[in-house]
Amino acid sequence: MESFHLGLGISAQGRSALSKDPEKKRRKNHFNLYTAIHETESIHTNRPINPKTKQPIEPAHNFEVHLEPDSYTEEKFALFQNYQLHVHNESRSEITKGGFKRFLCSGLGQSSRLKDGVEQKLGSYHQCYRLDGRLVAVGVLDLLPGCVSSVYLIYHQDVKEWYFGKLSALREISLALEGGYQHYYMDPENYSWDSLDADYLARLSARKYVSMSRERLLQLPPRRLTEDDELEMNNVISRLPGYLHASAGDNAMRRSAFGAGMPGLMSLDEVQEKIDLGKWLVNFGKMPVHLEDLEIWAKCDIRNPSSPKRIIAELAAALGPALVSQLVLEL
């Protein structure tokens, strides 16, 4: 956190004065999450006195963080659009205001309660990060009686080097502690839990991202992954039991039917083997056409849980080959 704080532009005089801070030695040996997180905010920034002017030395930039209801604004949508364009490589046509509202602005209603004499906010909120008044990041949170649940994070391309993913996670952990929420949840792939044992630590040391559910399925050892391993890790995700998928598009926050263990549901492999989805008729204008005749059909990836082809495959898996051959879709 200290490097981020200095990166915001504290002057040389300020750094010199801070180096003489009597708290410096104690803080080297005793880490306090609350202090480290909040000291970057302008309201908490230490302002040493300039020995020449006898006036406080103001930081070069103003950093603020506010928690507010998950309401829609054009400013938030512009930030979301920038994030999806640069991080997820989506086209502008794929990024819609309607999708953004449904995905990140229509969660739980807001309320509050008193817990141990402290007000505890409940519901869906946006944690907004502003630099010099400009919105540079938004963390989407569900605040529940027993936990802070991290739903999504968006940030502007201009601040990508400041590691807002790590910064927001630390701040959200601090929020859970300060508000008495007890637990902090990050967005899961599924609801399985693993002990932080020697094997897990070895995997964390070997690579940047660890998914025990995927690695168990592929039986991967705790070593650095090869290119083939990483490809398999990406492809295997939809086969996970209880897999949870979140996308930024109109079909956001969908849970994949495949792998959910639903009795009688065909698997994706069975659908592809026994049903020619492209031949399924769909009403298009005044006459039915085959799905494969639609231009978008060839562009859809059936492995993507949010793609139209995947959604139609899930419907076919529930209906079965006989009914699919007799029905015409209404989209």
pLDDT averaged over residues? 80
Decide which structural class fits the backbone. alpha+beta
Would you count the extended β strands for me? 9
Low-confidence parts lasting 5 or more residues at pLDDT below 50?
Answer: 1-18, 243-254
Q: What string, H for helix and E for strand, traces the elements in order?
A: HHHHEHHEEEEHEHHHHEEHHHE
Kindly state the percentage of residues in helix: 25-40%
Rg computed from alpha carbons, rounded to a whole number of angstroms: 25 Å
Give the amount of beta strand, in percent: 15-25%
3D architecture notes:
The radius of gyration is 25 Å and the shape is elongated. The protein has helices spanning 2-7, 12-19, 24-29, 33-38, 74-86, 97-104, 164-178, 198-206, 212-218, 227-235, 268-274, 295-299, 308-319, 321-326; strands at residues 63-69, 111-115, 118-131, 134-144, 147-155, 183-185, 281-284, 287-290, 328-329. The strands form 2 sheets. Strands 1, 2, 3, 4, 5 and 6 form a 6-stranded mixed beta sheet that branches. The protein is of the alpha+beta class and 331 residues long. A hairpin with a 2-residue loop joins strand 7 (281-284) and strand 8 (287-290). Mean pLDDT is 80; it is low at 1-18 and 243-254. It contains 14 helices and 9 strands.
